[in-house]
Fold this protein.
Amino acid sequence: MIESLLHRIERLERSAGTAGEALGPSPNDAASIDGAAPAERALERTLTRNGALLLLQGRFDIEPALAYTHSRTSGPVFLAEGNASVVSIGEDAVDRDEVKVGLDLRTGLLGDAQVEANLP
């Protein structure tokens, strides 16, 4: 489907008389900086992240992570004196906000090896 859309764009540019080469490659072009298609690069990163593919020697990936969690717990509070008669009934509520920041680093080594480091 993507190939047919790219061919259609090329035909439309030729019929309109505008050359895409005059403007230079667009960020949505089929080739990214390292020469791989964006879909191929996304697949490569996913496989590398899941451990199914090793990075090539000299290549590295840096993946920042940010997670936010909010939780609220509440429950009744009963206060009693020595003779077990209830003096006060109330509710205790606890709000908790948690932010986790991390960084995953991967680099390819010689001999089909890879080093991974996770910083919390």
